[in-house]
Amino acid sequence: MLVDVRPSDGGYQALLWALREAERRDATLLAVTVWSGDPALPDEGLGEMEAALAAMVDQAAAETGVHGRTRVAAVTWPVTLAEVAARTGAELLVVPSEEVAS
Predict the structure, then answer these.
(1) For domain 2-99, which CATH number applies: 3.40.50.300, 3.40.50.620, 3.40.50.10090, 3.40.1500.10?
(2) pTM for the whole thing?
(3) Average pLDDT for residues 23-43, to the nearest whole number?
């Protein structure tokens, strides 16, 4: 499973849902955030972004009681979530509700 985690309420809610679903499916969850920095420049701030993502996942795990099912990664744009899902073999991609077209 793969979840797109963004610094928004919708992103956090998607993470909470994905954690519970990973537990229900007995699956591992990859929590990803997309680093929008320039790929031609050094990844200044990438480490901080990944640390913030890990902290958000820790908070969500504490809230849901679902522990030990997640990995985190900050991926560099222009990689898309669909590409990450394909490369990791994710069977389910969870995105925040504000990302879903109505």
Answers:
(1) 3.40.50.620
(2) 0.80
(3) 80
